[in-house]
Amino acid sequence: MNFKNKLEEYVNIINNEIEKNIIKDDVIEKKLNQSIEYSLMAGGKRIRPILIMTSYQLFKKDYEKVFPFAVAMEMIHNFSLIHDDLPGIDNDDFRHGKPTNHKAFNEATAILTGDSLLNKAYLMISKELSNNNENIAQKLEALKELANATDRMIIGEYVDTEFEGQKISDDYLEYMHKNKTGALICASVRIGAILANATQNDLEKLTEYGECIGLAFQIKDDILDITGDVKELGKPIGNDIEKNKSTFITKYGLEESINKLNQVIDKAISIIEKYENGEFLKELALYIRDRKK
């Protein structure tokens, strides 16, 4: 398997599914729809929807059945990014090398764009439940998983903003990032497995894998905030230190953060290697560790 080609294939699939849900009609709220398209198609990595697809594929081949949940997850992720960038939270000017939504449009439109994306995610899944009564129990469980992860993500963001500029304990730091960054990532792995009707044993193993890569994703973000290249990242570096935020770097230093990153990735790989067709998820863990943006 060529991981790079497979990843690109999955990204294209997700992009095509997202585009199907972008409204381009000449309506009064046209600017709102343009704002939604601006953020959704800004060039994200699509890690979360890809995790839904590929964890499902550990057990079943017809991954197109998870598309509504995959697109909904990406909508919720983008809702969180738009609101995270707002002046009242992180006050960031760039995302993916482009002006953030509130800079490209305005603050009110950005807030409402985030609100709209969150609502559209649940509308998409409600339509799936209404139009297709196959595996309703699994879909309802996956919906519950998505809603809970969204709630945890918001809680993590609150902790991040509430304790900005303060020294926090190791437990608080891990709690913050397990929720803010890890919740949607871990839920994506779980949702794919739930929709594939995986056993409880498999679900427990994949939850552990999801928690590992979710934590790894945040540690790598913290590392890139001081070591990354501005052009590759598409946003300024050093923001976390400038805002006196608690990160793995400020808590443990660069060397120990790299060690922690390697440890959690090794643990994720040891879990997923036990699956005969888990090669892509293994390579994805390595991609998260080695990424430059």
CATH architecture: Orthogonal Bundle
Give the biggest beta sheet: 2 strands, antiparallel
CATH topology: Farnesyl Diphosphate Synthase
Uncertain stretches of 5 or more adjacent residues: none
Separation, N- and C-terminal Cα atoms:
23 Å
How many structural domains can be distinguished in the coordinates? Answer: 1
- What percentage of residues falls in helices of 4 or more residues? over 70%
CATH uppermost class: Mainly Alpha
How would you spell out the order of helices and strands?
HHHHEEHHHHHHHHHHH
Description:
The chain has 293 residues and is mainly alpha-helical. The chain has one domain (3-290): Farnesyl Diphosphate Synthase (Orthogonal Bundle), CATH 1.10.600.10. Helices cover 72% and strands 1% of the residues. The protein has helices at 3-19, 30-40, 47-56, 67-85, 101-104, 107-131, 136-162, 170-180, 182-195, 200-227, 230-233, 239-242, 248-252, 254-272, 279-290; strands spanning 94-95, 98-99. Helix 3 (47-56) packs antiparallel against helix 4 (67-85), helix 7 runs antiparallel to helix 9 and helix 10 (200-227) packs parallel to helix 15 (279-290). The protein is globular and about 50 Å long.
List keywords for this structure.
mainly alpha, 1% strand, 15 helices, 293 residues
Task: Provide a quick synopsis of the model.
The chain has 293 residues and is mainly alpha-helical.
